[in-house]
Amino acid sequence: MHNFLGTYTSRYSDYDGYWLFGMAVDTIDDLDIDLLHAGDSSIGATPDAFVVRLATERFADQIEKAGLSISCLREARLSITKSPVVTRGVVNGHVCVGNDIRFAVRAILDLGKTHETATSVFVAPHNPRTEFRSTRHKRPSGPQGGTVDRRED
After folding, report:
1. What is the CA radius of gyration of the chain?
2. CA–CA gap between residue 80 and residue 100 (Å, rounded)
3. 3 state SS of 18
4. Exposed, middle or buried, 33 (CB in 10 Å: 0-12/13-18/19+)?
């Protein structure tokens, strides 16, 4: 579970070459994502929709890497909660206004054992003046960058 959250919230989770959560922070308040039912695989045209799709994809990938099958899970949910408190943080050396977002994942195995973990990340709204587009993007315009301020719960 820890690896899933680390991978999902990393700078490699990008949308149009920029960190996904900076693109979606203004519209995220409280999300509950069923990680076992991906839904429509065509979803992803907006940052908000991509938040959901990427969560299910990354979770399935981490379960597979752990040598497990999705079928051995009874339930798996990701809760994403944005703190209503506006705070300051640093993004690429620039002080920015943003919010702490808590990511909590909970999985119940078919035998009833529960695994849970959570992390909090400072997220500032996307600002192309302080962020660099990922070099993985098809139209790279600058060096890969981005910082994540992570606090384990």
Report:
1. 16
2. 11
3. strand
4. buried
Helices marked H in the chain: 2-8, 20-24, 47-65
Segments making up each domain of the chain, as ranges: 2-152
Residue 53's H or E segment, with its range, is: helix 47-65
Whose CA is closest to 56, among 29, 77, 27, 26?
Answer: 77
Q: What is the pTM of this model?
A: 0.83
Distance of CA 86 to the CA centre of its chain: 19
pLDDT digits (tens, 9 = 90+) for 38-92: 655 555 578 999 999 999 999 999 999 999 899 999 999 999 999 999 999 998 8
Q: Express each pLDDT in 115-146 by its tens digit.
A: 999 999 999 999 988 887 887 765 433 333 44
Question: CA–CA distance from 45 to each of 22, 40, 48, 90, 125 (Å)?
Answer: 16, 12, 8, 28, 19
Q: Do residues 71 and 60 lie in contact, with contact meaning Cβ atoms separated by under 8 Å?
A: no
Query: CB–CB of 133/17 below 8 Å?
Result: yes
pLDDT score of 17 more than 80? yes
